[in-house]
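FORM 7B - TANDEM STRUCTURE REPORT

SECTION 1: FIRST PROTEIN
SEQUENCE AND TOKENS:
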Amino acid sequence: MHIPDGYLSPQTYIPFYAAFLAFMAVAIKKLKEKLTARLVPFLGMSAAFAFLIMMFNIPVPGGTTGHAVGAALIALLFGPWMAVVSVSIALILQAFVFGDGGITAIGANCFNMAIAMPFIAYGCFRLVQGNSTSLRRMNISAFLAGYLSLSLTSILTAIEFGIQPIIASAPDGTPLYAPYPLKIAIPAMAIEHFLFFGIVEGFITALLFRYFYNQNKEIIEVLKR
């Protein structure tokens, strides 16, 4: 899902950089207010978890890759704002150290996987779980949070590089950046993620959420009222 360099036009990646920096500033402020000595190690573990799980990239049509992200689990356990910081750290390190995702696309990649995905997951869990205390429903809520957040984020990503032929083309109509139109980009990303990567993300989220529920229930942010 990492968008590489050369796929987004400046009129796309510059606004995404601005949006990412704005969210990051708010996230850091909120973490300063609530971060305790006990949660500091979890912040580092979250970034390491996201970094590791995203390294297992599988190329997909449309010029990008598919993989699990881990942002949904982090959002459920520690809140979406911690996910913003930890997943962003992982994405930035991947871009600069491993070339996984473009430097110009850092803002867009962070917006997709470190901002949109955690908030979708957190909202999905809350919506499905409601006030129920059923463990079965909790497992379903965690799975859907991971599945839908990754799948919907893949469509957001596809739209970003799918609109490039519309907004950035040469006078003769040749695309200057991502060459694939929406009719190719969206199905390519949606099929892979709805049918495979989203399911993987859902199971990872549900299994690890259940583990933390059994071991450290009191720290789970999404269960707090």
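SECTION 2: SECOND PROTEIN
SEQUENCE AND TOKENS:
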Amino acid sequence: MPSLILIPGLFCNQALWSSQIADLLEYTKIMVADITRQPTIAQMAEAILATAPAHFSLAGFSLGSQVALEIIRTGKDRVDRLALLSATHGGVLPPVEKALHAAIATIEQGGFDQYLETSYPTYVAAPSFEDARLKQTFTKMAYGVGAEAGVRQMRALLEIKTPFTGLDEIRCPTVIIGGREDRRTTPAAHKALAREIPGSKLDFIDHAAHFTPLEQPGAVTELLRHWITL
């Protein structure tokens, strides 16, 4: 059975992918990467490649998409398929850069709860603001990762200063998935990324912002099911 590696995002763990895992296990063996211990994107990618099968499909969400692009940069011959969710072509957009610096300061001053409370609405579409179950999952994942690891992940993201090179050399089947209401990784950023990867398929999900796998799990699962069975 082919293998699929799922890479979570900032302050995320396996729970991010719970709906997708339940469905896709029929088609592929799944591994969820741990990117909580390494201080740089390059080291996160290196750690994943060190334990990955010889060939695998790869899906990365947000921070995980940046790790996925680094894996492509260093080991693209091992990647059979690529899915990038809530992704840019490298680094974060200027408003997010400013927000991450502020978040690091807040968390390091003991305001982890404050950060989670104020950041949640910036990650999800308006109808999800009052979704208690979604907010609980968001918060539980963040506490599972922990403040120290999360700050380390933020710093790793901020270290990406330029777009990834070689995106036009990606030849494996690639899908790019974004939320139409994403204010952190905007639809324009997704379109820019899609233009740089020849033959990539760009899909936008309605009624979702940044956290598409949790906000609209069925829609994300269907897109990934089609992608993994190509």
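SECTION 3: OBSERVATIONS ON SECOND PROTEIN
The two ends are 14 Å apart (CA to CA).
The chain has one domain: 3-93+156-228.

SECTION 4: SIGNATURE
Preparer initials: ____
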